[in-house]
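Researcher: I need the complex structure. Ligand is magnesium ion. Inputs:
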Amino acid sequence: LSTSLEAVWAKLRNQDVLTKDNIKEPMQEIRRALLEADVSLPVVRKFVKSVTEKAIGTGVIKGVRPDQQLVKVVNDELVSLMGGTAAGIEFAKTGPTVILMAGLQGVGKTTACGKLALYFKKKGKSVMMVATDIYRPAAIDQLVTLGGQVEVPVFEAGTNVKPAEIARRGLAEAKKKNIDVVIVDTAGRLQVDRGMMDELKQVKSAVNPTEVLLVVDAMTGQEAAALVAAFNLDLGITGAILTKLDGDSRGGAALSVKEVSGRPIKFVGEGESMAALEPFYPDRLASRILGMGDVLSFVEKAQEVMVQEEAEEMQKRIMEAKFDFNDFLKQTRNLARMGSMGGLMKLIPGMNKISPQQIADAEKSLKVMESMINSMTPKERGDPELLAKSPGRRRRVATGSGRSQEQVSQLVSQLFQMRARMKNLSAMMQGGSIPGLGA
Ligand code: GDP
Ligand code: MG
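Model: Output:
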């Protein structure tokens, strides 16, 4: 977090209410953060204008500082700009659902075809892919290989048949075989050009797709708005897939998609493997664009369930590094109240890439921890140093809980690690700064 940014937000913190004047500076910082995240300039302008209007209109909310209030408005507006909730795939009322993939060369169309194929297969649908990229001989092989990986048939007709004709034949074949979902891969070019658009339009009218998905590389910078506009005007898109979000781009292109086309992002690609496809959650990307993890919503959620006094007491103990095994138990129970570990862990910055398996493991290990804490004497719970110092005590806890001494040692060192981490986090929260914003 840059010091200038910190100073700007600190000033706002001491105000009573958001006004046109006192949010000017913070809004400039937001504007800069968005431009740094590669959000297109016209989109940024519109965004800043609407946030300014909304922020001024919010008045005083008891217990919420003006700077927090502004961050919330910014975050909410980002989320709604990207479409609010996650949008799913439309299915055809009768016959196969046809998904036409479009986009520039190298953005990840063919990869996304394979990923979608696997996604639908896992949902119990029968899937077929159709190869219409006849310009690079390797493109057909690539799709066939991916089809092999995800065990989905690929329809191809070599490189001498026109793409629209291949698509038409592919669809006919799929109908014959009672296929549920047909995914049509297409050729891209390095830039938007007439030839590509005409070809895509021909493919589109040949198969009358249920979905036309524009595949957009998350690294696409300022030009995302023009790109989306071009594809939408010429071809008409029903949604987009944002790829390569596993890279270090902040994903500002996402904002342009909804703003320019009115169509939502439906999926994000987060890696080269076939499983690396996720539904698009606007709130997660909003946090990423602002670069603040989800610290804010974590705080919000935590405050909902923790009784205020209890929270203050806990905070004091954390600040004084007195956090012990009693607190640990209390915290675990609070966490349980906050909902599944899964939902919670997603809120912690850097922890949002956790698999269901890891979540299940974490929930199990929480139970193991509880069993060990239950075997501690009250004195040991209140003074973890006792356990840290005495192998004899650790052995007794291990025997009492039916765990290994190693597990007990691990738990003890974990508590000390937690003390350190929570101290950092609470310093951040108390400072009221927005970690990472625009940094
Ligand atoms: P196409 O030309 O649009 O069909 O693009 P491809 O599907 O051939 O992908 C181009 C390159 O990007 C390949 O090396 C892919 O492995 C890679 N790629 C595609 N999607 C992703 C993604 O979500 N993350 C990463 N890291 N790489 C991706
Ligand atoms: Mg391709």
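Model: Summary of the prediction. The beta strands are 97-102, 127-131, 154-155, 181-185, 211-217, 239-243, 265-269, 277-279.
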